[in-house]
Amino acid sequence: MTKIDLHIHTTASDGTFTPEEVVREAARLGLAAVAITDHDTAAGYPAAAAEGEKCGVEVVPGIEISTKFRAAVHILGYYVDVHSPALDEVLDWMHRDREDRNVKLCAMLREKGVDIDNERMHARFGDFVGRPHFAEIMIENGLARDMDDAFERLLNKNKPFFIPRQFLPLDRSVEIIREAGGIPVLAHPFQYRLDDASLRELIEYCMAHGLEGIECRYTGYDAEMCAYLESLAAEYGLARTGGSDFHGAIKSDIRLGEGRGELDVPYAFLAELRARRAKD
Is 35 helix (H, G, I), strand (E, B) or coil? Predict the structure, then answer.
């Protein structure tokens, strides 16, 4: 059975591997295909696709959009047109909102004696600057012990450095992915801590706006959890996907294509997505 990984982050968002490095690592591990699903951007796909041509790894254009339902929900999009005007408009708005938050975080750090501003953050970390990068600055300046400490004590909700972001509504996120020619998929369903009835309500709400898949295999999900999600996918006629949520050094215990050793995503899942794309 040929393995794949359909949930990967790069330096185009908050990962620590460049798109090219991700693809080279996938080739080294013998993965047949990967999907680049950076947060709220598709900027990493072109470089990854070019490297895939060299390495013999199939690279799927993707994205992960942060949305709001009753709480935060993430929607993956596969085979999106990375040059779609509809997608660009939304991503530009999300980028501006993130930049506003980053400017405020820099100001809060300066109040704690850290000499930093948004321009220097971008000079160091690139176009995408997110909370993991601020956590790194906090660690270097003695405000936090490590990444977990930075988030748990400073950056998470109701903590001193938490600044809420604006999120695209869940229904609009699903619709935008479809408008961009993509296949919308509900990411890591167990992360939302919903009971069966509430999870079904979420799935049915998303389906009403065009949801086409569920991420059934994910880092930390055991065989029983995966089987339950795959049964839901079959019941609702949705495609199955799976991936590690690889970020590199930021989540060093999660390995590409393997998660923490339990992940096994077959190529058949990608074939399901491709078949749905062919029907549209």
Answer: strand
Q: What is the pTM of this model?
A: 0.88
pLDDT tens, position by position, 253-279: 999 999 999 999 999 999 999 988 877
Q: What is the DSSP string of 108-163?
A: HHHHTT----HHHHHHHH-S---HHHHHHHHHHTTS-SSHHHHIIIIISTTSTT--
Cα–Cα distance for residue pair 73/170, rounded to 1 Å? 7
Which amino acid would we find at residue 56?
G
Closest-CA residue to 199 (of 111, 70, 105, 94): 70
Question: Where does the pLDDT of residue 167 fall: very low under 50, low under 70, confident under 90, or very high at 90 and above?
Answer: confident
**71, burial (CB in 10 Å: exposed 0-12, middle 13-18, buried 19+):** exposed
Q: How many helices (H) and strands (E) does the chain have?
A: 10, 8
* Measured distance CA(7)–CA(241) in Å, rounded: 9
Spell out the domain ranges in the chain. Answer: 4-83+181-279
* CA torsion through residues 91, 93, 97, 100, sign: positive
For the domain spanning 4-83+181-279, the CATH number is 3.20.20.140
